[in-house]
Design brief:
The complex is a heterodimer of chains A (405) and B (234).
Chain A: H1 3-15, H2 18-56, E1 60-65, H3 75-79, H4 85-91, E2 100-115, E3 118-128, H5 131-135, E4 140-143, H6 148-152, E5 157-160, H7 162-169, E6 178-181, E7 184-192, E8 206-210, H8 211-219, E9 226-231, H9 237-251, E10 262-265, H10 267-310, H11 312-320, H12 325-354, H13 370-394, H14 398-403
Chain B: E1 5-14, E2 21-31, E3 36-40, H1 47-54, E4 62-67, E5 70-71, H2 77-87, E6 88-91, H3 103-114, H4 118-131, H5 147-159, E7 165-169, H6 177-192, E8 196-201, H7 204-207, E9 212-217, E10 220-226, H8 229-233
Parallel strand pairs in B: 3-8, 3-9, 6-7, 7-8
Antiparallel strand pairs in B: 1-2, 1-4, 4-5, 9-10
Classes of the chains: A alpha+beta (405), B alpha/beta (234).
Chain lengths: 405, 234
């Protein structure tokens, strides 16, 4: 009784009831397909998050005002200072802050841009310094960024984000054109390269102009929304964060034992937190898929139990003509394993093909390890969930099996 | 020459306690190689139980049984399977062919479990089918064969391993007189070739073909007569 004979019997047994076999296979297919696809969606989501955070620049710190607008008019407000342009300038200090490369003051607001007959709401209209482009990793696709001279002269020039430019100008070349931003005329000098949408915010739906021009015509001369700090390198971010904290604490006269009135956002911390979140998400998806695989496995057990009950007489005949316990065990185990292996194979195909499509805005990334894993697990499921029905079949006594009607 | 079947004080009890049924109450029987034995008895007399014990399909509650010199009582499950495969050919009243499997594959089945190669199996299975006159039905499924043909396939399957004994449990019970004659003719031919045959029946004309008749009543052998019927007429 060799392996080929066992497989032949198993295939014949499965072929005898094609509908039942294919439905059981479907259960495993869905389970394995779900594992591969959902894990791919999970890793796709985490890859997207990593990419979007890396897009912000991993060597960038963002300083924002702490508690502004919160806490009402209590004693808190007295101790909370605005971030100022001078704060930003003070951070670029080769002695006090050797790890800081550049610091750009940022004001941002939403504004309505009008060109010709078209009107477009820009959710993020930013006023800043030229260093901002390099710091935030925002290359231009056409034209040029504004210069320090533009800032000093408070020239009303603007660099449009890809989406804003597309909406206002369509196929027309926006360079040199005049747009009205909240009824103030700005000249378009450049267009940003597209960064792609991430999460809630479309980074391309933006516009960047010199800080004084924006304060002058749109936001007024209040405090800054942010200071964007560029560290010398990704490794220097933590040192830079400490230096920035020390300088701003000193400038804002924060006692050593008091909380700062500003907050520093470190993208690598953000990255770690988000990565953790998406990993949890992936594990959760994988767990749900694993449950469906388990249900598929129970389906295999169920159908094998039915098969064994149905074929008790056949088992009796085989035993009467000399089939050993192991021969019967092998036959039914092989049937169960073939069912789930075939299901697993189809499931791998379904999972890999399904991963080629975008799913709820996420580009799935197939984890290479998930394929052999899901396939191996499906084979194990066949062996594990098939072993109970098979051992029941094998332990039948021939005379009892033959008497079964 | 030692007997191929040697049964001493064989007992079989089904169930236990107050509901216990004593199907065999001490049977002594020995069968020589080449004998053609008919076991007769009323339904419930224990004759099928006796045959199942001889065929190693069931285990006795007491007594001893030697088959071809082997003490069956000392064998484990696996060894019993091998014994059934090598030494015994069993024929059932209801044919018991494996469904959805061709006549040839059914006949091959004992050889598969014996571990023979494909070519050898084909050859021997075809020879066995030739012997029962079903050469042209090799590719048919059991559902495409008549009762008599199915029983002849079962006979071929019982023979294919060249067993020490062929056991038949009311082999003609479900057959019309023509098919009965065909099957009995096959048995006669086998016996003439030297096979040991034990057949259970309650039909006198089946027993008439046998060399020796044993009657069983209430789990005991009540008579054992040799050389009747066809044998006496020879």
């Amino acid at each position: 009784m060799n392996v080929i004979e066992i497989l032949r019997f198993a295939v014949r047994g499965l072929a005898a009831n094609k509908l039942r076999s294919s439905l059981t296979t479907l259960g495993i297919t869905i389970g394995v397909g779900a594992v591969i696809l959902l894990v791919a969606v999970g890793s796709g989501a985490s890859a997207a998050v990593e990419q979007s955070i890396a897009g912000l620049g991993t060597n960038v710190l963002t300083v924002t005002r702490q508690g502004g607008g919160f806490g009402g008019a209590g004693n808190n407000s007295g101790s909370t200072r605005q971030l100022t342009v001078d704060d930003a300038k003070s951070l670029v200090d080769p002695l006090g802050a050797p790890d800081v490369q550049a610091a750009s003051p940022v004001v941002s607001t939403s504004a309505t841009a009008v060109y010709g007959g078209f009107s477009h709401d820009v959710p993020q209209f930013t006023g800043t310094y030229p260093a901002y482009f390099e710091t935030t990793n925002s290359p231009l696709s056409s034209g040029a960024a504004f210069t320090d001279d533009d800032v000093t002269q408070a020239r009303r020039v603007v660099v449009l984000g890809a989406t804003a430019a597309q909406d206002l100008f369509g196929a027309e070349d926006p360079l040199g054109q005049q747009v009205l931003v909240n009824s103030i005329q700005f000249t378009v000098v450049g267009v940003l390269a597209s960064k792609g949408a991430n999460g809630l915010q479309n980074a391309d739906d933006s516009a960047v102009a010199p800080l004084p021009a924006v304060q002058n015509s749109i936001t007024g001369y209040g405090g800054l929304n942010q200071i964007v700090v560029q560290a010398k390198s990704a490794d220097a971010v933590t040192a830079a964060q400490a230096e920035v904290t020390a300088i701003l604490n000193a400038r804002h006269r924060i006692a050593a034992n008091r909380a700062s009135d500003f907050r520093i956002l470190n993208p690598s911390q953000l990255l770690a937190a988000r990565t953790e979140t998406t990993q949890t998400f992936t594990v959760l998806l994988g767990a749900v898929a694993a449950i469906s695989l388990l249900v598929g496995g129970i389906g295999v057990t169920n159908i094998m139990l039915v098969t064994v009950t149905e074929r008790i007489r056949e088992i009796g005949i085989r035993k009467a003509i000399g089939a050993t316990r192991s021969a019967i065990l092998g036959q039914f185990l092989a049937e169960a394993t073939l069912l789930s292996l075939f299901g697993g194979l189809l499931g791998v195909a379904v999972g890999v093909i399904g991963s080629q499509f975008r799913i709820v805005g996420i580009e799935p990334v197939v984890a290479p390890a998930s394929i052999p894993l899901a396939f191996g697990v499906s084979a194990l499921i066949g062996l594990f969930f098939g072993s109970y029905p098979a051992s029941r079949a094998a332990s039948l006594r021939p005379i009892e099996a033959l008497r079964h009607e | 020459m030692s007997p191929v079947i040697e049964v001493v004080n064989l007992q079989k009890v089904y169930g236990s306690g107050a509901t216990a049924v004593r199907a065999l109450r001490g049977v002594d029987l020995s069968v020589q190689t080449g004998e053609y034995l008919a076991i007769m008895g009323a339904s419930g007399s224990g004759k099928s139980t006796l045959l199942n014990l001889i065929g190693c399909l069931d285990v006795p509650s007491g007594g001893s049984y030697r088959l071809d010199g082997i003490d069956v009582g000392s064998l484990n499950e696996r060894q019993l399977s091998l014994l059934r495969n090598r030494k015994i050919g069993f024929i059932f009243q209801s044919y018991n062919l494996v469904p959805r499997t061709s006549a040839l594959s059914n006949v091959e089945l004992p050889l598969v479990y014996a571990g023979l190669g494909r070519k050898e199996r084909r050859l021997r299975a075809r020879a066995a089918l030739d012997l029962v006159g079903l050469t042209d039905r090799a590719r048919h499924l059991p559902s495409e064969l008549s009762g008599g043909q199915q029983q002849r396939v079962a006979v071929a399957r019982a023979l294919v391993n060249a067993p020490a004994i062929v056991l038949a449990d009311e082999p003609t019970g479900n057959l019309d007189s023509e098919s009965t004659a065909e099957v009995l003719a096959v048995f006669d031919r086998l016996n003439a070739l030297g096979r040991t045959i034990v057949v259970i029946t309650h039909e006198d004309d089946v027993a008439w073909h046998a060399q020796r008749t044993v009657r069983v009543t209430d789990g005991r052998i009540v008579s054992d007569t040799a050389l009747q019927g066809a044998w006496a007429a020879r």
